[in-house]
Design goal:
Protein name: DUF5830 family protein
Largest sheet: 3 strands, antiparallel
CATH topology of the largest domain: Arc Repressor Mutant, subunit A
Number of strands: 6
Structural class: alpha+beta
Shape: globular
CATH class of the largest domain: Mainly Alpha
Pfam families: DUF5830 (PF19148)
Helix content: 25-40%
Low-confidence stretches: none
Distance between the termini: 35 Å
Radius of gyration: 14 Å
Number of domains: 2
Order of helices and strands: HEHHEEEEEH
Number of helices: 4
Length: about 130
């Protein structure tokens, strides 16, 4: 199914998350910190994720059902740059920025602490 770029980024991020289940509030908060601050777009991402079969709701939790989707998985990368920026997650000023490279585009910048809070732990095993 064809989605607008922001929705696509949200779906790619959900596919990349390394979590078996999260509360709907946690998923929405992660999307707010990574993809968009607009709640209507977050609602569209959540709806598209349910429609694509990436998320199922059970017992008040969002269960990630990656094997049920037909979207192609692209393993994201963490890109580290030396630049002065503000963290998208916490707003702190930083000299080193981290970006998450998804198939649909880049997310970030993030500080080293915040990028590790985005349920992408498996990416840091390669460092």
């Amino acid at each position: 199914m064809k989605h607008p770029k922001t929705i696509r980024k949200g779906l790619d991020y959900i596919i990349a998350m390394d979590a078996p289940e999260l509360s709907p509030l946690e998923v929405r908060e992660l999307l707010r910190k990574t993809v968009t601050k607009r709640f209507d777009v977050i609602d569209q991402i959540m709806s598209a994720a349910r429609k694509e079969g990436l998320i199922t709701d059970k017992d008040g939790m969002c269960h990630f059902t990656y094997e049920a989707h037909d979207l192609e998985f692209y393993k994201p990368r963490i890109i580290h740059t030396e630049e002065i920026n503000n963290c998208r997650c916490c707003g702190r000023s930083m000299k080193e920025s981290h970006y998450i490279e998804l198939r649909s585009g880049m997310l970030g910048p993030y500080g080293s602490t915040c990028v590790r809070k985005l349920y992408l732990d498996y990416l840091f095993g390669e460092e």
